[in-house]
Amino acid sequence: MKELVFGHQNPDTDAIVAAKAYSYLQNKLGKDTEAVALGNPNEETKFVLAHFNEPAPRVISSAKAEVDAVMLVDHNEAQQSVSDLKDVTVTHVIDHHRIANFETAAPLYYHAEPVGCSSTIVYKEFESAGVEIPAKLAGLMLSAIISDTLLFKSPTTTKEDLKIGKQLAKIANVDYEKYGLEMLKAGTNLASKTEAE
Amino acid sequence: MKELVFGHQNPDTDAIVAAKAYSYLQNKLGKDTEAVALGNPNEETKFVLAHFNEPAPRVISSAKAEVDAVMLVDHNEAQQSVSDLKDVTVTHVIDHHRIANFETAAPLYYHAEPVGCSSTIVYKEFESAGVEIPAKLAGLMLSAIISDTLLFKSPTTTKEDLKIGKQLAKIANVDYEKYGLEMLKAGTNLASKTEAE
Ligand SMILES: [Mn+2]
Ligand SMILES: [Mn+2]
Ligand SMILES: [Mn+2]
Ligand SMILES: [Mn+2]
């Protein structure tokens, strides 16, 4: 039975990337999942996807129209999720936010940690499952961590975000300081604003 | 800052044992925690504690009277927890039940899986932390899994419960089939009833 995997509404880079990464892992483990999104990528995420030559995920407005079960990443609160969340079963959650306005009828897999980024937790899921992360996906996950932690400078950044970020940079063969600044700059859209002014 | 670790009201063997096991692990990892309980052990749990020469945990009726932060095992629903749960911060949850009536103000560590027993999940926490389980604790955790899965026969039993149960039996050097039947019999209190009749 196919399941959809998605992050929150008004997706940021972590919401898009953690869904792609967790769906990849679940499919490697034998599940049939598709990473989708609840909105179009923002400027920063567009830069990230273009940089790693990765397509934007399909945007959905209903889950129940397609599946009976879903996996949530980077959120859990119903008001941040798909509008018909109550009509489907949540089987997995990977998140780094507080838990609120979230309820299930059945036991589920829920992995949350108070770290800077959902993609940091997805990395740990790959590790414990013993599944290798392809270079492109590592680049995307690194981008999500840089985005959520503002290049490891936000107060929510943990030692684990930094350690895992560096490991992903190695796998992706990316100079994370240089790339990170370019990426954050693309997100603020300074370049195009300067041109337009 | 000390934290209390406890299972649900009217504790069963898993509620008592998972608290003891997770508190042991957290202390090994440098935290200052104490496993307590929200009620006295039932007949089955008394048998288990006596068998492994382990004291019953201290019973509390308030968390806030002692600490600012707590870790929950084997439950998450507020109505099953300590009466003043809303006055303390939940930093960790290890559980195998649905999520309902649970809300936090801040991000936390939450590890739930749809398996037969919380102690199965605690075992995985030991594994990923690389911490060894002492023989006595392994015997207690095996008892919790036998209790929750009715000796691996309940419909909630997973392959992982069985695999981990067998590994714990090996560490504890316990014949789990023989011990498990004795333990479940102690729980039904057949022996004492027969004597009394
Ligand atoms: Mn996000
Ligand atoms: Mn995030
Ligand atoms: Mn229980
Ligand atoms: Mn249990």
TrEMBL record, chains A, B:
Name by which UniProt lists this protein: Probable manganese-dependent inorganic pyrophosphatase
Annotated binding of Mn(2+) 2, by residue: 14, 74, 96, 148
EC number(s) reported in the record: 3.6.1.1
GO terms of molecular function: inorganic diphosphate phosphatase activity; manganese ion binding
Main subcellular location of this protein, as a coarse class: cytoplasm
UniProt key word Hydrolase: yes
Record key words, sorted: Cytoplasm, Hydrolase, Manganese, Metal-binding
Cytoplasm among keywords: yes
Catalytic activity annotation: diphosphate + H2O = 2 phosphate + H(+)
Cofactor binding note of this UniProt entry: Binds 2 manganese ions per subunit.
Subcellular location: Cytoplasm
Cofactor(s) in the UniProt record: Mn(2+)
Binding site for Mn(2+) 1: 8, 12, 74
The family this protein is said to belong to: Belongs to the PPase class C family.
Source domain of life: Bacteria
GO cellular-component term (any): cytoplasm
Organism, scientific name: Ligilactobacillus ubinensis
